[in-house]
Specification:
The chain is an all-alpha fold. It is built from 18 helices and two strands.
Length: 478
């Protein structure tokens, strides 16, 4: 069989990287094209926000069921099926003839995206033994770093020189190559007993996360005092509380929340969600800062954000190959997150007359620090997770990442708006950079909080993922 001619580490890694890249990029590439979409469909830019929001809502609602589907029907089948669905939905989005069509198709695209990432992550950690996961994470962090930064660049390019429809068409060749490669070389992974389907958990998780994501996404736009936003957020939160109560009582829950009781896995999830709040919130505000505060166009802003991705890639290699094997997750996480927090604070010193190379350098260093979060958490979190629980564990981690991103954008946007991004002057509005600075300070506070939580991690709990140096191995053998 062809699947036996290619290492499953390579096969799973290649397909998962492609899926992860498309999912993450699709969360950012559309943002800069909203005015162009609104113009073509004859509506205001604000009316097109559903194109972004419905995708995120569907993504969050689909994630909880992904682990069970992968275990029940096989990771290969579900992963490749989800990628193919994502490709078809992307092509249809690009061909949409009305805003309502586009919004409906974005829901379909979000469902496919919500299934891809957790299933792919579970397959990956099943083929990589714990001691090799740090190096694997260094490769997988590339789409995590590049996709959010590349999205605005490509989006700005397509709008400026081609058409907004290409922000969707760009997924088609990537996805098709991944599907063909997976069909040829990917071996099946399936559990003997995935357990019965938890209908109550599915309904509660999907509706609760969907409502909460919708409220968090719309809140900064419509205002947190809007009765519909308040009701949506409260309903989502109540459903999630009920979900916790129900799932903890079930013998075969859809979401194995008991996994969070494990010290290492629970702390890694907490560090991840707090770190992502600060990181993705900063990336979102920096984009506005460049365009509305400093007057750059979308393409220029995207290119000036891209050094963050280069910092993540550079840092990930150092963390995975040198620092993590030597120091373990605890000190790596603390040091990296504190560096990221310092860089978020450093962004407050950027003004209208500051050379663009200053914020670019700051973002590079912030990305360098954040690489510690991505590498250490993804490596350590699953150190003690059994083969059978890998699907459920990856589902939980991905759910928290999605929530963290939505919460980060919601909080920083709210802080940013409350601080007043525009100050009247000389009869016309001018940017007030102090609003951006308040947002950067808020992001830094979350990064510091994440660093403090990381101090409670015990390196001994993640010992199976730490490869000792030859000298220390000889000492241990004496």
């Amino acid at each position: 069989m062809l699947s036996q001619r290619v290492s499953q580490k390579v096969a799973v890694g290649a397909v998962y990287v492609a899926a992860l890249f498309m999912t993450i990029m699709d969360s950012t590439i559309v943002n800069v094209t909203l005015p162009a979409m609104g113009h073509e469909f004859g509506v205001a830019s604000a009316a097109v926000n559903g194109v972004v929001i419905y995708y995120l809502v569907a993504l969050a609602a689909a994630i909880p069921v992904s682990g069970w589907l992968g275990d029940r029907f096989g990771g290969r089948r579900v992963l490749l099926g989800a990628i193919l669905l994502f490709v078809v939905a992307s092509a249809l989005c690009g061909a949409a003839q009305s805003l309502s069509q586009l919004e409906l198709l974005r829901v379909l695209q979000g469902v496919a995206g919500g299934l891809m990432t957790p299933v792919g992550m579970a397959m990956l950690w099943r083929v990589f033994p714990p001691a090799e996961r740090a190096r694997a994470a260094a490769i997988l962090v590339i789409p995590t770093a590049i996709a959010p930064a590349l999205g605005p660049v490509l989006g700005g390019y397509f709008v400026t020189y081609m058409s907004w429809r290409w922000v969707f068409y760009v997924n088609v060749p990537i996805g098709l190559v991944a599907v063909v490669f997976g069909l040829l070389f990917l071996a099946e992974q399936r559990l003997d007993d995935a357990g019965a389907f938890d209908l109550a958990g599915f309904v509660l998780a999907g509706s609760g996360l969907g409502l909460l994501m919708f409220g968090l996404s719309k809140g900064p736009i419509d205002g947190w005092t809007d009765p519909a936003i308040v009701a949506t957020c409260l309903a989502g939160a109540v459903l999630l509380v009920v979900l916790v109560a129900v799932e903890l009582r079930r013998a075969e829950p859809l979401l194995k929340l008991r996994l969070l009781a494990a010290r290492l896995f629970g702390l890694c999830n907490a560090v991840m969600i707090l770190g992502v709040i600060g990181f993705l919130g900063t990336i979102f505000v920096v984009s506005l800062f460049y365009q509305d505060g400093l007057g750059l166009n979308a393409l220029q802003a995207g290119l000036s954000i891209f050094p963050e991705a280069l910092g993540v890639m550079a840092g990930s290699q150092l963390v995975a190959k040198v620092l993590y094997p030597r120091f373990g997750p605890r000190r790596i996480l603390f040091g990296g997150l504190m560096l990221a927090a310092a860089m978020m604070l450093a962004l407050t010193s950027v003004g209208a007359q500051t050379s663009l190379w200053v914020p670019r350098s700051i973002l590079f260093c912030m990305g360098f620090g954040m690489s510690a979060l991505f590498i250490a958490v993804q490596t350590a979190a699953f150190a003690n997770t059994s083969h059978d629980d890998m699907g459920a564990a990856s589902t939980l981690l991905n759910t928290q990442q999605q929530l963290g991103g939505a919460i980060g954008v919601a909080i920083l946007t709210t802080v940013f708006v409350a601080a007043g991004p525009v100050t009247p002057a000389g009869g016309g509005p001018v940017p007030d950079l102090s609003a951006y600075r308040v947002a950067f300070v808020t992001a830094a506070a979350f990064a510091v909080l994440a660093a403090c939580v990381a101090l409670f991690i015990h390196d001994s709990d993640a010992a199976s993922t730490i490869t000792p140096s030859p000298d220390r191995a000889r000492e241990a053998g004496r």
